[in-house]
Amino acid sequence: EAVGEAVSAAPPPDEHGWITATVPIESVTHAHGEFLRLGAEAEIVAPAELRDMMRRTAEGLAGLYRRRSP
Predict the structure, then answer these.
(1) What angle do CA 20, 23, 27 make, to 5 degrees?
(2) What does the pLDDT look like over 27-39, one tens digit per residue?
(3) Nearest to residue 29, comparing CAs of 63, 56, 64?
(4) pLDDT at 1
(5) Cα Rg for the chain, rounded, in angstroms?
(6) Where are the alpha helices (DSSP H) in the chain?
(7) Mean pLDDT by 10 residues, the chain (70 residues)
């Protein structure tokens, strides 16, 4: 919900189609779960703690899916 509101209030997309939006977060942990739902459709720029948490999760998922099928 907060993401949708922030995107609606954001300026138009840049020349690459990206929208820069400021999204208020309850906590880094809560935001982590919320932003994971967006997958590769969103890039977290700040705060650094959240960006690092998202990077670690993405790396873990990539490693999981690189392995052979069970």
Answers:
(1) 140
(2) 999 999 999 999 9
(3) 56
(4) 75
(5) 14
(6) 2-9, 28-36, 48-66
(7) 84 92 93 92 94 97 86
- The two tokens of residue 53 are 């948490």
Token digits for 49?
A: 């703690």
What are the CA-CA distances from residue 37 to residues 11, 32, 33 (Å)?
A: 22, 9, 7
Contact present, 54 and 36 (Cβ < 8 Å): yes
Residue type, 53: M
The residue to which tokens 């995107």 are assigned: 7
pLDDT at 12: 92
Q: What is the DSSP letter of 15?
A: T
